[in-house]
Amino acid sequence: MKHLTILVPNAQTGPNTLSCIIGAWHVFTSANEYWKNKGKQQVFTIRLAGVSEQSDFVNGLLTVMPQANISSIQKTDLVIIPAIQGAFKQLHKENIILVNWMRERYKKGAELACMCTGAYLLASTGLLDNRSCSIHWNAVDNFRNLFPRVILKAEKLITDEQGIYTNGGGYSFLNLLIYLVEKYYDRQTAIYCSKIFQIDIDRQTQSDFVIFTGQKTHGDEVVKKAQAYIESNFYEKISMENLSKKFAVGRRNFDRRFIKATGNTPVEYLQRVKVESAKKAFETSRKTINEVMYEVGYADVKAFREVFRKITGMSPLEYKDKYNKDMVHM
After folding, report:
1. Which of 47, 21, 46 minimizes the C-alpha distance to 35?
2. Fewest CB within a 10 Å sphere: which of 14, 156, 158, 283?
3. How far, in Å, CA of 23 to CA of 292, rounded?
């Protein structure tokens, strides 16, 4: 029988941490029961493990008492790392023990699966360096600044690379759990759990949930001014060559600095600003696709549709249908 360890962090716990812990326990317990009812041995022994006797949540209203201290677990097959509070500059010293423990368990063959901002803990092990990682879209800038060697794939709902799994934010951790059930049990068990807990199976992206606010946590003042210009004039035709000249920076150097600061090229940034404006119009107005397209500075329907789908994972019409039930079609 395999061993599943659900971590209970001792510090920096956000409001979603408890949901992740309880959700993982429920889903894998149900998968075990379904497996047993089919006449098979349960796949996992499940244990909650931490570094202290109890951890408090929701401002002390709720307390979790782990079943074991991680020091007593030398062999495990799968480790679940719940979301933690993401906006921190360095790891709390009380979680360093967890970080070292995770690194050692991975070296000894365990797989690691982190939920949402649990990626901060996982990235602190160094195991995510030069590997893909998904995280909540709202934590991208802060995470990128802290862990520049990690290859962020914020549009992805789930990443799966060499026994390390990550997923996007909020309650999308439930999709990761279903994904893991399919890998460790089988497809039918995953379908059963998805129906019992009413979780969409096979969801691949979180792109349409992203609210783009611009990456402003960097310290490059020239890039910040360029961002402000783009955001104020996105509906006009902007030449990136002229924009770089406006700030007295060579084009290649301008592009390089922009990418380093924001993670996007200037052109990609402009596209994301345009699409974010289009999304808001689709959500809140009765304007047609063409009307919105022209307002955000596109004249070619095909080009607008391609850029919109690239960024959101949906066509403009699909997005409008989903988020504005009172819409008027083209």
Report:
1. 46
2. 283
3. 40
H-run or E-run covering 272: helix 266-284
Name the residue among 43, 54, 71 with its Cα closest to residue 18: 54
> What is the rounded distance in angstroms from the CA atom of residue 99 to the CA atom of residue 128?
12
The predicted-structure confidence for 270-285, as pLDDT tens digits, reads as follows 999 999 899 888 888 8
Q: What whole-number distance in Å separates Cα of residue 225 and Cα of residue 321?
A: 36
What are the phi and psi torsion angles at 83 (to 5°)?
A: -65, 150
Convert the pLDDT of each residue in 75-94 to its tens digit.
999 999 998 874 455 555 66
Q: Is the pLDDT of residue 51 over 90?
A: no
Q: Is residue 327 over pLDDT 50?
A: no
DSSP string, 15-83: TTHHHHHHHHHHHHHHHHHHHHHTT---SEEEEEEESSS-EEETTTTEEE--SEEGGG----SEEEE--
Type of residue at 304: F
> Kind and range of the H or E element at 156?
none
